[in-house]
Amino acid sequence: MTPEDERHPDDVQQHLREVQDLLARHKLVEGLVHRQDMPRHDLVENLVHKQHVAELQHKLDELHPADIAYILEALPLDERLFVWDLVKAERDGEILLEVSDAVRESLIETMDTHELKAAAETLDADELADLAPDLPPEVIQDVFQSLDSEEREQLRAAMSYPEDSVGALMDFDMVTVREDVTLEVVLRYLRRFEELPDHTDKLFVVDRDDHLKGILTLEKLLISDPELEVSEVMRREPVISFQPDDDASEAAQAFERYDLVSAPVIDADKRVIGRLTVADAVDFIREESEHEILAHAGLREEEDIFASVWDSVKNRWAWLAVNLVTAFIASRVIGAFENSIEKLVALAALMPIVAGIGGNSGNQTITMIVRAIAMGQVEQSARNRLLKKEVGVAVFNGIVWGGLLGVLAWWLYGSVSLGLVMTAAMTLNLLLAATAGVLIPMIRIRLGADPAIGSSVLITALTDSGGFFIFLGLATLFLL
Amino acid sequence: MTPEDERHPDDVQQHLREVQDLLARHKLVEGLVHRQDMPRHDLVENLVHKQHVAELQHKLDELHPADIAYILEALPLDERLFVWDLVKAERDGEILLEVSDAVRESLIETMDTHELKAAAETLDADELADLAPDLPPEVIQDVFQSLDSEEREQLRAAMSYPEDSVGALMDFDMVTVREDVTLEVVLRYLRRFEELPDHTDKLFVVDRDDHLKGILTLEKLLISDPELEVSEVMRREPVISFQPDDDASEAAQAFERYDLVSAPVIDADKRVIGRLTVADAVDFIREESEHEILAHAGLREEEDIFASVWDSVKNRWAWLAVNLVTAFIASRVIGAFENSIEKLVALAALMPIVAGIGGNSGNQTITMIVRAIAMGQVEQSARNRLLKKEVGVAVFNGIVWGGLLGVLAWWLYGSVSLGLVMTAAMTLNLLLAATAGVLIPMIRIRLGADPAIGSSVLITALTDSGGFFIFLGLATLFLL
User: Fold this and answer.
1) Among A37, A142, B64, B172, which one is most buried in terms of CB atoms within 10 A?
2) Nearest alpha-carbon partner for B223 in A39, A194, A20, A88
3) CA distance linking residue B11 with residue A253, whole number of Å
4) Tell me, what DSSP letter sits at residue B244?
């Protein structure tokens, strides 16, 4: 990062506005050039045009890659591609790493093989591995050929780990030292570097065969007497380290819990093979929580807000299809009670209340349980305790809110028994919601499934069909 | 952190299991002691009991405060308080900082003024400020008296900033140097420290009056010739810095975007008054996303999963109450069409489909728009473009899915016109959902409100009532 890259955080919005401004002016001029046919003006307008483009280019050259990525994401497709063309080719790689998947796709589509190869060649092996799934195979092949054997090995390794593993997040930029040298020697060794890898807060102490012996924090290196040996100030094993097959989510939680900046990644033989940094952990945490929020609303992935209608439809259709099926089932449950509704039309007006409140209450329960499970804090042994608590909440809410609605139904339709059926149906549907909210995630865990995926769909489907069935069933039994 | 604190990440689960194990054994013995009245056995059982307690205590002494916090959160109240009593008093403060708000309350309730004071006195000013809202006023008063004047000033400052500001997150542990000294002098200065503040990756270069002149990264300090002066290797202003009134969310995004480890916090005169670290940023990101996920399900705050029924009811009632009101309104919309339903009971079975799918589709749109707004990537100027896209998606889905449902309705009830009404109502409700999904957050932003809060409730209320109205209205017009 050059000094120009560092700014006050508010400034990224400022950057965006400036770029939009320049684009607007640029467009205006371009519009004039096209509309007017007077050749005399051409030259002047072309000059003005060129001047704006140069200004924009200068502005972009000054920006941090992450800021350019932010601006690209915020621009509609035509403006985005115009700006992308102005970005210096040697910065393409790092910017592609920063943009969201959807925007990355839109940028890569416009680049030819040659440009993509040039962009890829500016990246490290671990960065290349992140980008690889979006690149055409022939580009990857070419880039692979251009790497030296160590980088090839790293790229092969990085690409071999599943997406949510530590191996997929790690980089290969670590500084290692031996334990039998003095700190003075380490200090002299570091002075031979032109720069240290980002987020170097500790050096990894290894033996001749790269086995992890411990860590030497820069803090210890700086505050200790340089005459001391590394072995005297290092923190010995066991230190916090990860294996490439470890779950990335757990590693990110460990970074958060222990306030880590970097940590070694070791293989089964305790050989240091890579490094995980807090930047990777933060990115992972952000992506994970975004994924959860989007999944909740049935969005498959982060959407480029300026995506085409067709791309948006594709991103959203799966959830709508599921929803269609569950809504249809609920509708058939109602259909089975059409005779009852014909006799007492008030049922049609009241039934969505029972279903809706059951759905919301069930979502509260399942959200809480799924979160607690994700944090690893719920064992199967706690099931009965949780069930008891949720059932208690359901009975309370059923009597209080169900009672209130029962009174309203009585008041609206002048029937005490209709009010009582309403209260009973509310309570029963809340009980169904509470039980399912606790049991569905627990059962899915036992079956080895991710309890978060579609939990909201499942519980809503159940409380909708269940709510209709309970309410209309009770009404048929007691009112008709 | 002592060496014992650092473990493989999986181990926190392991720790939890071990503690639960010890607790189970402990309970068994305690049960025996209480149940049996034979005095002869008392001594032996007491010994076994004591041995288990000692083992548990030893285990706890070895654990990182964050791990103890994790275990406390995962234990039911009685076991939680038993473990809490075994934790060494001098560690109470740091553990209270790590546990969730709900669990912190449950722990503080059991501590007397004296214990709370002792715990609070082990903390730094910025940590105290975090804990203060949960402490009784007399404890804060006492602790305040025991601070020296600098710490008092820091505590006063930290407590004066609103919760979501940089000021509330910052700490006061910074190392500053002057620019006119050599790196050799800086290195000697650092060797006088017993330890450096956590997350020190740079020193802040200041003048005599603490005005920020630039930063000296540990990297530059380590790789540069010690004969050089600080001014020759430091990065000069402007560097990334924050002001205490800055939005914490934007600061956290800046940490993520620029991969920062620490950054200075300066006042309006550019005087360094504190420091923000990546650990604070990570905690903030995690809390923010948790808050969003919980708010989505209508949970006011993170819930202690072993909370009492009453605490759970309190945490959830607000959303249920709102939901009750919106469901009641939707029910009255249906009530207005009771005549139509009486004549054509199929309407009762089909209407929840129209409402439900509109709700889900609206939630997809609003979730995407709210997220894009939160990232600062949607300007009011993009409104028409987004509206056009969402309307396009709605028309597409209305024709495809609505058409499918129309065919199903035709097939079920043998009425082409009922099918056509179904398709038309679906399309119109999806259009309502798309328009509201774009406009509601944009209007709320213009009114200065947070577009995220209750966005899901609002859109669902609108698409429920609207869906019923559109479907039953169209049916009344064209079918009866």
Assistant:
1) B64
2) A194
3) 12
4) T
Domain co-membership, A47 together with A123: yes
CA pair distance A452, A373, nearest whole angstrom: 9
A447: Cβ contacts below 8 Å, ≥ 6 apart: none
Using alpha carbons, select from B460, B316, B307 the residue that is nearest to residue A401.
Answer: B316
Q: Which residue of B has its CA nearest to A311?
A: B393
DSSP A161: S
Unique residue bearing structure tokens 């740079």: B202
Least Cα separation, residue B44 to chain A (angstroms): 30
* Chain B residues within an 8 Å CB radius of A194: 223
CB-based contact B45:B32 (threshold 8 Å) = yes
Beta bridge partner(s), residue A150 = none
Asked whether residue B274 is assigned to any structural domain, the reply reads yes
With b meaning 16 or more CB within 10 Å and e meaning fewer, what string describes A155-170? bebbbebeebbbbbbb
Rounded distance, CA A72 to CA A15, Å? 11
Distance from CA of B245 to the nearest CA of A (A): 12
Q: What count of CB pairs under 8 Å joins A to B?
A: 387
Residue B394 domain boundaries: 309-479
Strand partners of residue B165:
B247
Residue of B nearest to A74 (CA): B377
B310 residue type, one letter: W
Here the CATH number for the domain that contains residue A206 is 3.10.580.10
Of B327, B386, B369, the C-alpha closest to B352 is: B327
Q: How far apart are CA A171 and CA B1, in angstroms?
A: 25
Q: Same structural domain for residues B147 and B192?
A: no
From CA B106, how far away is CA B100, in angstroms rounded? 10
In a domain, A170, yes or no: no
> What is the rounded distance in angstroms from the CA atom of residue A405 to the CA atom of residue A467?
15
The structure tokens listed for B164 are 């979501």
Cis peptide leading into residue A238 (ω within 30°): yes
Nearest to B66 among A7, A258, A321 (CB): A258
> Could you give the 3-state DSSP secondary structure of residue B171?
strand
Per the listing, tokens 């269940």 go with A466
Find the CB nearest B297 among A13, A20, A363: A363
pLDDT per residue rounded down to tens, chain B (480 residues)? 333 344 455 577 788 888 887 877 766 555 444 444 445 556 666 677 777 888 888 888 888 998 899 889 888 888 889 899 888 888 999 999 999 888 898 899 889 888 898 888 888 888 888 888 888 888 888 888 888 888 888 888 888 898 889 999 999 988 999 999 999 999 999 999 999 999 999 999 999 999 999 999 999 999 999 999 999 999 997 889 999 999 998 899 899 989 999 999 999 999 999 999 999 999 898 888 888 888 777 777 777 777 888 888 888 888 888 899 999 999 999 999 999 999 999 999 999 999 999 999 999 999 888 888 877 777 767 788 889 999 999 999 999 999 999 999 999 999 999 999 999 999 999 999 999 999 999 888 888 877 877 788 889 999 999 999 999 999 999 998
**At residue B412, what are phi and psi to the nearest 5 degrees?**
-70, -45
Number of domains composing chain A: 3
Question: Is B341 within 8 Å of B457 (Cβ atoms)?
Answer: no
Nearest CA to B146 among B167, B126, B122? Answer: B122
Distance CA B51, CA B41 (A): 15
- Note whether residue A450 is domain-resident: yes
CA dihedral B384, B386, B389, B391 (to 10 degrees): -70
Cis peptide leading into residue B238 (ω within 30°): yes
- DSSP reduced 3-state for A275: strand
Residues B215 and B286 in one domain: yes
Confirm whether A290 is domain-assigned: no
Contact B9 A253 (CB under 8 A): yes
